[in-house]
Amino acid sequence: MQRFDAYHTGVMESCSRLLSATGPLAETLESFRPRPQQQALSESVASAIEDYSQLVIEAGTGIGKTFAYLVPAILSGKKIIISTGTRHLQDQLYYKDLPVVRKALAVPVSTALLKGRANYLCLQRLEHLPQHAKAAGKFRSHELRQVQDWAHLTHTGDIAELSRLPEDSMIWPLVTSTVDNCLGVECPHYQKCHVVKARRAAQDADIVVINHHLFFADLALKQDGFGEILPSAHAFILDEAHTLPEIAGNFFGVNLGSRQLLELARDIIAEQIHDAPDMSKLREHADELITSVQDFRLSMGLQQQRGPWPAMREQMEVGKALDRTSECLTQLSNDMEQAAGRGKGLQQCQIRIKDQLARLQIMRDDASDAVQWFETFKQSFVLHNTPLEIADIFTSHMKDYKCGWIFTSATLSVDGRFDHFTSRLGLTDAICDDLDSPFDYASHALLYLPKGMPEPNDSSYTRRVIDSALPVIRASQGRTFLLFTSHRALREAETLLKHAIDYPLLVQGSAPRSELIEQFRELGNAVLLGTSSFWEGVDVRGPALSCVIIDKLPFASPGDPVMQARLENLRARGVNPFMEFQLPQAVISLKRGIGRLI
Questions:
Q1: pLDDT digit string (tens) for 76-90?
Q2: 373/371 Cα distance (integer angstroms)
């Protein structure tokens, strides 16, 4: 405890000393190297926590921003919530980085990891699984046995513990809960509930690690008048902050998908079997909803696509399917007037029916301040009503929390300016700073731009990219990432490279991302082809990754319905959409892709 007492006074000064060549992190970690930028970042974070101010700070690749914000967060003695972009990064922060810094500082802080409820085993739904299984159809029995065996062993209920089961296993929705189907305090397993225990731990902890999806889910719940999930905090540290505007748009909008509708129908059947076996009409009408949702998907065409919803809604078959689904929900709503009193589960289904009817009505009407669009997948669809602007919504939520707000990422600025990021979130009072990478790019990296390339929309473009890439890949002896801006280009490149190189070829989609990255590290001479999900959050240290090839400047598709609506909105306001939105987005994406190498 002497180390804590010695450093706790003068937090900003302590941050630099702790991250110096003679500090405890240097003593603890053999690979630690002091960096002035890391010390400066740590001091800025400490000041924002202390002053309850807004800080937007870009920390270039190699600064070590995680340690930089963990040190002042731990030293502050305050309640700090740290949010990052994905569950993978969340686990890495909580299980690897945070324990290292806490041990080095010898500070007595309590910590908690909190994820969304879909990440925790629901004991009630596991108990009722026989009814849900009848409603949902077949799934692999050995997967059920694995879940049942693990349920007796787990202390957290975090489904990530059962890593041998695939994330997309159809059993997970049957044994996890949603906001819609959770029974709350009336659940017979409430005192043992893994979600409740995780939230209680978060309430009591000094430092809570979450992810952006949970963060915005909580804000969206508050917006609808429900209780907040996250505990009150003295500061929020939002890492990988460049992803916030897009995620915010999804959560502050309204979505309705076939999965929600089908889960509702199957839950109604399961609850009818359990609590109202004499009400066979309820099951019949739930079956009719399932059929109507399946017909709805077929009416939108067999291909996987995304596009503007109003145009799709006007098609005759889609309009009929929309009407039929609405009729089925209305019929079930009438049924529930009698059935809801039979059990808490049926009562919860009644609430969900009304909610989904309201969402469906939103998608039947035009919207002036939002873009309505759809996505179709192989067997499912999602309808979206996404707000064009989220700045006012976000800042109104920020005002509810009288605390410090720290936004950090390796890519937030464009040409030294932060307007592109701050304007989208309404951060008019934020202090902005840009800390350059400590890496010597000029001495340790080469930039090669092949000459004579055709236009990016030329049919021969991807073939020419591969022709230019082959001598570079051979010179690098494999050890290469090829990053593409479209899946179509990736598939063409896979075909062209399959018999053209002697190095192992790893392709996105052939295995989970984490598994591909691990294979790439172990092989030491592989070539990996990836699209958007490989442009960020991938860290391959050492010589295994020595070359990154990017097929074209990563401009978002202008045909995307959300992009189209935003560009039109900017034009209507007299703003140049290319200079103020498309180009900055491409610059940030390019910086992230290049960052995979250095």
A1: 999 999 999 888 889
A2: 6
Handedness of CA 141, 143, 146, 150 (dihedral sign): negative
Per the structure block, which two tokens stand in for 119? Answer: 């990440």
Q: How far apart are CA 7 and CA 369, in angstroms?
A: 51
Q: How far is CA 409 from CA 435, 436, 499, in A?
A: 10, 12, 39
User: Rounded distance, CA 242 to CA 425, Å?
Assistant: 11
Element (H, E) at 26: helix 24-28
| SS3 call for 28 | helix
Q: What percent of the chain has pLDDT over 70?
A: 94
Q: What is the pLDDT of residues 525-568, one digit of tens each?
A: 999 999 877 777 677 777 889 999 999 988 887 778 888 888 88
Contact 230, 208 (CB under 8 A): yes
In the 3-class helix/strand/coil scheme, how is 78-122 assigned residue by residue?
A: CCEEEEECCHHHHHHHHHHHHHHHHHHHCCCCCEEECCCHHHEEC
For position 132, what pLDDT does the model report?
56
Containing 507, the helix (H) or strand (E) segment is: strand 505-507
- 445-466 pLDDT, tens digit per residue, is 888 999 999 998 899 999 999 9
For residues 210 and 112, is the Cβ–Cβ distance under 8 A? no
Provide the H-helix boundaries in 499-597: 513-523, 561-572, 577, 583-595
Distance of CA 116 to CAs 83, 178, 251, Å?
Answer: 12, 9, 13
**Gap between the Cα atoms of 221 and 237, Å rounded:** 20
Residue 311 token pair: 């145009």
Distance, CA of 431 to CA of 329 (rounded, Å): 50
Among the listed ranges 8-12, 190-194, 339-343, which one has the minimum average pLDDT value?
Answer: 8-12
User: Can you give the pTM of this predicted structure?
Assistant: 0.86
First-last CA distance in the chain: 38
Query: Phi and psi (nearest 5°) for 135?
Result: -75, -35
| Residue 225 banded pLDDT, cuts 50, 70, 90 | very low
Average pLDDT, rounded, for the chain = 89
Q: Going by C-beta distance under 8 Å and a sequence separation of 6 or more, which residues neighbour residue 309?
A: 363, 372, 373, 374, 383, 384, 561
Model confidence over 70-121: pLDDT tens digits?
Answer: 999 999 999 999 999 888 889 889 999 999 999 999 988 999 999 988 899 9
Per-residue confidence (pLDDT) for residue 585, from 0 to 100: 85
SS (H, E, C) 341-386: HHCHHHHHHHHHHHHHHHHHHHHHCCCCCEEEEEEECCCCEEEEEE
Among the listed residues 532, 524, 510, 447, the one whose alpha carbon sits nearest the alpha carbon of residue 479: 524
Cα(213)–Cα(56) distance, integer angstroms: 20
**Pair 148, 203: CB distance under 8 Å:** no
Tokens matching residue 179: 């906001």
- Give the residue from 367, 332, 372 showing the smallest Cα distance to 352: 332
Closest CA to 223 of 247, 252, 197, 243: 252
Q: How many Cβ atoms are within 10 Å of 166's Cβ, its own excluded?
A: 11
Pairing of strands 254-257, 111-113: unpaired
Counting Cβ atoms within 10 Å, is residue 46 exposed (0-12), middle (13-18) or buried (19+)? buried
